[in-house]
């Protein structure tokens, strides 16, 4: 009874005062921006980090309509190594888009990706990469400095994302991994989170087209991988090769069956 009367009053006020609805909307926006400002001031993230967060979380769900198989398992704090398949230049945004709706306490975290160094100097890409503290690496496969920089970030408690295939995969399945991912995982001694990306936007002729191409993408989060049984023999070649194969298998097995569409919250 009280609720019905209350809303009738609101409706009558809006009808009699045309600008009341506008004032109500403005008050709502002020509350939203006030809440965001409080979050920014209390956060360790930079203004650039929050700007990127807002852009990604407004744009990605709208254009690529990302669905997931379960809540994002990335930790709310502390280090974690994320591995994913790689078919599109937009994959880093898909991997991290729902991490703020993961385990409690839900929090916004940037993911630092290992990326090809030639992209690190492109103006817009450079801003995104530096904001996310991405690590440039040469495509030759001999550049261990990038892997060591990722190890340093993990030791500091960061989330680090790696695409172990090493380049965009235009074929079926998951391409073989280099042993660098096993070296990093064994020395970091952190949980590994496999993520398989389905139906990511691709283009055979342009690196820009995937960013504006609408799709219905899906993420399959696998269970965290614990490598502690391998730590004692982590320097042995056989162990590194075995862990490389294990990580490849755990990611590849997420390809099928494809998940039913579901919301991230």
Task: Characterize this entry briefly.
With 265 residues, this protein is α/β, with parallel strands linked by helices.
What does this structure look like?
This protein is an alpha/beta fold and 265 residues long. The chain has 2 domains: 2-42; 47-252, Glycerol-3-phosphate (1)-acyltransferase, CATH 3.40.1130.10. 41% of the residues lie in helices and 12% in strands. The chain is built from 8 helices and 7 strands; from the N terminus they run H-H-H-E-E-H-E-H-E-H-E-H-E-E-H. The chain has helices at residues 2-16, 20-42, 47-64, 91-96, 123-131, 144-155, 180-188, 237-252; strands at 67-68, 80-84, 111-116, 135-137, 159-162, 192-198, 218-221. Strands 1-7-6-2-5-3-4 form a 7-stranded mixed beta sheet. Helix 6 runs parallel beside helix 7 and helix 7 (180-188) crosses helix 8. The relative contact order is 0.15. The model has no long low-confidence stretch (mean pLDDT 84). This is 1-acyl-sn-glycerol-3-phosphate acyltransferase. Pfam families: Acyltransferase.
């Amino acid at each position: 009874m009280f609720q019905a009367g209350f809303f009738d009053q609101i409706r009558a006020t809006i009808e009699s005062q045309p600008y009341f609805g506008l004032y109500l909307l403005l008050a709502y926006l002020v509350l939203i921006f006030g809440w965001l400002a409080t979050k920014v001031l209390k956060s360790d993230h930079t203004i650039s980090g929050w700007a990127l967060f807002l852009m990604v979380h407004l744009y990605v769900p709208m254009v690529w309509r990302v669905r997931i198989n379960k809540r994002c398992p990335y930790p709310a704090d502390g280090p974690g190594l994320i591995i994913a398949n790689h078919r599109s230049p937009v994959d880093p945004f898909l991997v991290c888009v729902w991490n703020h709706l993961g385990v409690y306490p839900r929090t916004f975290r940037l993911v630092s990706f290992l990326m090809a160094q030639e992209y690190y100097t492109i103006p817009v890409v450079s801003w995104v990469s530096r904001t996310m503290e991405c690590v440039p690496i040469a495509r030759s496969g001999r550049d261990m400095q990038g892997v060591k920089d990722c190890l340093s970030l993990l030791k500091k408690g960061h989330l680090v994302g790696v695409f172990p295939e090493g380049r965009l995969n235009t074929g079926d399945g998951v391409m073989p991994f280099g042993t660098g991912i096993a070296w990093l995982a064994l020395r970091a001694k952190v949980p590994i989170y496999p993520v398989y990306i389905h139906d990511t936007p691709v283009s055979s002729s342009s690196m820009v087209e995937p960013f504006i191409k609408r799709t219905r993408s899906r993420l399959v989060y696998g269970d965290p991988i614990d490598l502690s049984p391998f730590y004692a023999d982590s320097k042995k070649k056989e162990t590194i090769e075995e862990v490389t194969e294990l990580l490849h298998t755990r990611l590849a097995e997420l390809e099928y069956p494809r998940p039913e569409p579901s919301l991230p919250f």
